[in-house]
Sequence to fold (457 residues):
Amino acid sequence: MKVRKLSLPFSSKLISSLLPGDKILLNGSLYTARDRAHTRLVELMRAGHTSPIPLDEGALFYCGPSPVPPGRICGAIGPTTSARMDSFTPFLLENGLKVMIGKGDRSKEVCNAIRKHGAVYLVATGGISALLSRCVVSRETFLWPELGAEAVYRYVVQDFPCYVAIV
Amino acid sequence: MKTAQRLLSDALIQAKVIEAIGKIFCDREPHAQELLTQALESETDELARDILGDIIDNAALAREERLPLCQDTGLLVVFARLGVDVHLERCLRDTLEQAAAIAWQKYYMRDSIAPDPLRGQLGVYENIRSEIGARLPIVLHLEQVPGDGLSLDLALKGGGAENMSALRMFNPSANTDEIVEFVVDTVVNAGGRPCPPVIVGMGIGGDFELSAILAKRALFTDADERGACNRGLEQDILQRINERGRGVMGLAGRCTALEVRILTAPCHIASLPVAVNLDCHAHRHIRVEI
Fold:
């Protein structure tokens, strides 16, 4: 198994060098977005606004974190099921999204759109929150705090383990 | 004739439940941890070994640092067996919901409840949320049993595995192969979504809802409780799931399921309900006897 240390944002050249099954230790900014954040984001963009999340710079992380205990940088983090976001993903890929992190299969339409737009879908292991939270360097509430666990949080991560699934 | 009743105080039940949640939010049930260790020992695929290693290490770290095993700290599911000679100070549901609300805050667990299942599509989202307030709904199955004890089987059930459940009303003339195929397909087609290796709960018989309750209840049982009558079928289904090769997190390796657990009940002569309920590898289950 090939292990690569990589930093976001990913260039087209870098993405084209990735192979399914490669392990990646990821560095950079992850923006959490799950069901309700996707609904809001796409509504906003369809209404003509630019994306408030820098889709081409960071990675979209399908994640609803748990609250932050005192004295810690973050609470528990980890991937949720990506397929629930499939209906939004082709539109986001058309509008600059390059890197997604989640778990589980994607629809055929999403697989095709990922390849068409030179993007990559990474999977992280579910249920290893304590290990993943160790990779977090900083955390901030980025958008829509009223959505609680479904808000957009920005995590800067160091050596965050994930695997290339679709490229 | 008057029978003496044993008083179980609200405070005692709450303290036991809060303590139990404090164990399972950061640690999986020991038998599941053992099965995962065995899966790692027999695994040859490098990617699967890497993931299984992380899954096992995570539990040790989570336990030590009192961090959630998974950011989805789940929904509290309780199977309660309440002795007929027990006197409670108030309804068990109220006691358990209050204990859950305290535990959720104490252990910094995620509020994963959408008070309105339609997410405001009917325009009532805010109203429903304010009505529920700070209450944390739980799923409670209450059964009366002889005696003066209270037994609580508690689980923190994540959404990803729950979403991959299935229920089918078979014809009574269906053969076992059809049922096996249904279960195997349900688990295999779920891919990485339920966080495999999973534990597969199956309910066969009863009626529509009883089969589903049996499938969930099966996840709480050990081999002794289930008895030997379905052991051959459990082993057969387990083998057939793992032969299909979806593997750890739906990515690689030979282990898609750790165990299959079946409970059965008699059913109507016209029916043969079969339900499947999956649990992720976190398997946060515990029994509390009071």
